[in-house]
Automatic annotation (TrEMBL):
Residues 1-194 form the Major facilitator superfamily (MFS) profile domain. It is a multi-pass membrane protein. GO terms for molecular function: transmembrane transporter activity. Keywords: Membrane, Transmembrane, Transmembrane helix, Transport. This is Major facilitator superfamily (MFS) profile domain-containing protein. Belongs to the major facilitator superfamily. Sugar transporter (TC 2.A.1.1) family.
Length: 229
């Protein structure tokens, strides 16, 4: 449970979403946008897509399920990050036109934010609130939140240094590789929790046996008391 809870919180951040949102003007400037009005418009578009797809996630999360949305989210983010890093690399070497580079950069940044917001963004908090037993839920969820914020700060504070070291395209290539790992993590470690009771969720992690024995014991005790009465 801790591997799942802490892992999904960390992957939510180390795929680079905060770097993408915080430094989107830097990314768009590197793609070739020069005027402040164009930078503002592109940044507003990122915020719009983030908000719109969070609202979509609210509608879909119980209808579609957690894991299918996580698959869509992590795979979509990986594809967007790969295309973004490739476009920035080609732009830096003059292999594509400025207009094409700008269009691809805006579409992939907005696409990455959209895929994040419809899946791993909100779902990591939902899953973290569902998988832990009640007696440990507060402590475990708090530990996950700490992991989330620490990784977020590490990514945000190191992004510009990484860009100077290996270029913006190189930084997003690294994020794309991490995002690809998040697909594997979701497949291997994150169960579907939609519509399941606490006992059923615990059994998904190999537990639940003790809880069933306790229930049977309590039922037997009640029957004995009834007969004695």
């Amino acid at each position: 449970m801790l591997v799942t809870g802490l892992g999904i919180q960390c992957f939510q951040q180390i795929t680079g979403i905060d770097a993408l949102v915080y430094y989107s003007p830097t990314i768009f400037r590197d793609a070739g946008i020069t005027t402040e009005s164009q930078l503002l418009a592109a940044t507003v578009a990122v915020g719009f897509f983030k908000t719109a797809f969070i609202a979509l996630a609210i509608v879909l999360i119980d209808r579609v399920g957690r894991k299918p949305l996580l698959y869509v989210s992590t795979i979509g983010m990986t594809v967007c990050l790969v295309i973004l890093s490739a476009a920035l690399f080609l732009l830096a070497h003059g292999l594509v036109s400025r207009g094409v580079g700008i269009a691809i950069a805006i579409l992939t940044v907005c696409g990455d934010v959209a895929f994040f917001s419809v899946g791993i963004g909100p779902i990591c908090w939902v899953v973290s609130s569902e998988i832990f037993p009640l007696r440990l839920r507060a402590q475990a969820a708090a530990l996950g939140a700490v992991a989330n914020r620490v990784t977020s700060g590490a990514v945000a504070m190191s992004f510009l240094s990484i860009c100077r070291a290996i270029s913006v395209a190189g930084a997003f290539s690294a994020f794309a590789a991490i995002s690809a790992l998040s697909v594997v993590f979701v497949h291997r470690f994150v169960p579907e929790t939609s519509g399941k009771t606490l006992e059923q969720i615990e059994s998904l992690f190999g537990g639940g046996g003790d809880g069933e024995d306790v229930d049977e014991l309590e039922l037997g005790d009640v029957e004995q008391l009834v007969h004695k009465g």
